[in-house]
């Protein structure tokens, strides 16, 4: 990250780049209520994440916390940047983006469904997008849920689609507790995978054992997610913080001039 070309951030955000992870996560929790009442600060965080994606500079823990905050606030304006993050190679950013999209709800689901109309999307990206649709369980959106269920069934059945995408559809059907899809999964296994498919078979077994589905990471309190960050991992992905802290440079050369908490 080029220190000289980095933008100045609001001083309240600079505290995310001071101290150890305990202090960073404490600041993250404090900022949730602050950002909730400050749309300009919310937009600044979105722009910061967009800049890092564009420049492929990598993400410091404080910047990952910004992404978590936006998801916690269900920031609809952040939908576009989180969708872009699904295409990035940064696994930690992908996991946080999935959680955030799940929490944002209707605007995110509409954008994801539109994106998935393209059958040529790279399989891994489509699989992550389908996982984000599992967040429908957090929201009372019956019409949107119907559209999502239809999308999942279509993707599971569509033989031209990448295997990763079809498997992700099966996983989502199981996690959402769509027990009426049991026969569908059995038919797909019989017709398209006579030698078996581990992911679809496990999804079928999970749905049979848990017809109401399973709780997703978006339902976990942010305190839990931050504690996983402190332990160098987050559900669905792992993060090595030492290289980040060694290679990353705080977003302004004037960090030393900001009062530490």
Question: What can you tell me about this protein's structure?
Answer:
The structure is a single chain. The protein is mainly α and 261 residues long. The protein has one domain (3-151, 217-257). 61% of the residues lie in helices and 2% in strands. It is built from 14 helices and 2 strands. The chain has a two-stranded antiparallel ribbon with strand order 1-2. β1 (233-234) and β2 (237-238) form a beta hairpin. α3 packs across α4 (61-72). The two termini are 25 Å apart. Residues 1-6 and 237-261 have low confidence and may be disordered.
Question: What are the defining features of this structure?
Answer:
single chain; 261 residues; mainly alpha; elongated; disordered N terminus; disordered C terminus
Blueprint (SSEs and pairs):
Blueprint: H1 11-14, H2 21-36, H3 39-55, H4 61-72, H5 79-85, H6 91-104, H7 106-115, H8 123-133, H9 142-157, H10 163-175, H11 182-192, H12 198-209, H13 222-230, E1 233-234, E2 237-238, H14 241-247
Antiparallel strand pairs: 1-2
Helix pairs in contact: 2-4, 2-13, 3-4, 4-6, 5-6, 6-8, 7-9, 8-10, 9-10, 10-12, 11-12
In short:
The protein is mainly α and 261 residues long. The protein has helices at 11-14, 21-36, 39-55, 61-72, 79-85, 91-104, 106-115, 123-133, 142-157, 163-175, 182-192, 198-209, 222-230, 241-247, and strands at residues 233-234, 237-238.
